[in-house]
């Protein structure tokens, strides 16, 4: 059975964040809250953890994983960002948006889209993922927690514990999350294309 931490959503307890990061570094799969829905996360280099997340969510090989970053300073290391794209990122992060960008060589190939070589980049407006990425010293490999048979995501960590408590290593209860995943915006060619409407306002990109 997974461990279960109750972490304050605005002022995360440093001791619990350190313990969670230790689990991530050991190859663990962690459930954590964001400013949209709960997410599944692991470190980029943990192949077995990534495979476990694929199994939990039944993800296809072409699925675009997301790197949950602490702030914009991480993004240039993992994605190629042109000036127009950077201005959009600066304007809309942190927030409930995932931006699809060309990946750099720092991103393991198995996390990239196999044909387009892209990666999702996200800076959640939530203290817990920010604290985790800050303590980890790198982004968290992440994807929304939505099981194959679900139409709507879990909003409560206690429900997540009942369903996936045996297949993840840690569940971080940071209070209720929303019902909509992040809005996904493709910036591959520098021109914003909305791939998924979610918790953020997609119209601002359709007018850009």
Tell me what the structure shows:
With 208 residues, this protein is α/β, with parallel strands linked by helices. It has one domain: DHBP synthase, CATH 3.90.870. 28% of the residues lie in helices and 22% in strands. The protein contains seven helices and eleven strands. The chain has helices spanning 14-25, 47-57, 75-78, 83-92, 127-136, 157-164, 203-206, and strands at 3-6, 30-32, 39-42, 66-68, 79-80, 97-103, 118-122, 140-144, 170-173, 183-186, 193-196. Strand 2 (30-32) and strand 3 (39-42) form a beta hairpin. The longest helix is centred in the N-terminal third of the chain and has 12 residues, at 14-25.
| Integer-rounded radius of gyration | 16 Å
Total of DSSP H or I helical runs spanning 4+ residues: 7
Give the helices and strands as they follow along the chain.
EHEEHEHEHEEHEHEEEH
Which term fits the overall shape?
A: globular
CATH topology-level name: DHBP synthase
Low-confidence stretches: none
The CATH architecture can be named as: Alpha-Beta Complex
Strand content: 15-25%
- The mean pLDDT is 93
**How much helicity do the residues have?**
25-40%
Q: Quick one: biggest sheet?
A: 11 strands, mixed
What would CATH call the homologous superfamily?
DHBP synthase
CATH class, anyone?
A: Alpha Beta
Q: Strand tally, please? A: 11
Number of domains: 1
